[in-house]
Q: What sequence folds into this?
């Protein structure tokens, strides 16, 4: 079997799983965005994936994103999903569809300044750390409300929802509570009707746990290895 067939099969398989998880929980499959996580994936493979219907790509390094966006021959939608250093914000512009990983006020301030400078409003998600693992970035759920209130005053940032990374586990049922918690936090904030804050997008679920995340309300699943194979660094 050649590489093209592997990619075709992997995409079909993931799409089928998304569909089943959506229907199982009474949701519409088309309400869930399949974001291809392409860190370390080469541009030719990305172009093939694009032609097979994956048009949104997530990168965790600004440098890699800049390099790829220069050479790729497709009109992709780009997402930044990993920890974003404030000194990289100067490279971001209107070509970024969504920043998933707003996890601290310094980063919000840097994005706000950059947005003012280039006259752009950055769509962002607030990353929340539910599990409390120190290795994971993200706002503590108890601090989320006050963080969001600060963001609501920043005109060049538009909060669209929340993002989380669940701890790795062999049994994704063990992290279901994390996705439930994110959904509940979004509902609670939505209820307050804070100006400039919307909670329509929930970026949760990766290769190991996206079916569970969809059952709990995910609207964007970030899938790397299940599409492109294990990463070799
Ligand atoms: C790498 C990465 C993913 C994709 O992980 P897989 O397990 O390969 O699907 C998703 N989200 C973030 C933030 C990542 O860094």
A:
């Amino acid at each position: 079997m050649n590489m093209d067939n592997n990619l075709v099969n992997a995409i079909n398989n993931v799409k089928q799983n998304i569909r089943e998880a959506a229907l199982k929980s009474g949701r519409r499959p088309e309400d869930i965005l399949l974001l291809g996580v392409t860190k370390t994936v080469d541009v030719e493979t990305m172009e093939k994936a694009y032609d097979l219907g994956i048009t949104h790509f997530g990168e965790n390094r600004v440098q890699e994103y800049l390099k790829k966006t220069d050479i790729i021959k497709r009109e992709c939608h780009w997402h930044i999903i990993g920890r974003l250093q404030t000194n990289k914000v100067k490279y971001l512009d209107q070509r970024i569809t969504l920043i998933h990983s707003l996890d601290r006020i310094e980063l919000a301030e840097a994005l706000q300044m950059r947005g003012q400078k280039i006259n752009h409003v950055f769509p962002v998600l607030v990353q929340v750390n539910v599990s409390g693992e120190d290795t994971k970035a993200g706002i503590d759920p108890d601090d989320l409300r006050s963080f969001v209130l600060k963001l609501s005053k920043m005109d060049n940032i538009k909060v669209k929802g929340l993002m989380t990374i669940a701890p790795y586990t062999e049994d994704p049922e063990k992290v279901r509570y994390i996705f439930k918690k994110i959904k509940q936090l979004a509902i609670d904030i939505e209820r307050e009707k804070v100006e400039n804050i919307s909670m329509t997008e929930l970026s949760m679920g990766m290769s190991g746990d996206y079916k569970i995340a969809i059952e709990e309300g995910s609207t964007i699943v970030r899938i790397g290895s299940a599409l492109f194979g294990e990463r070799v660094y």
In short: Residues 37, 39, 60, 81-82, 165, 206-208, 222-226 surround pyridoxal-5'-phosphate (CB under 6 Å). The beta strands are 33-37, 56-59, 77-80, 96-102, 122-127, 157-163, 197-203, 220-223.
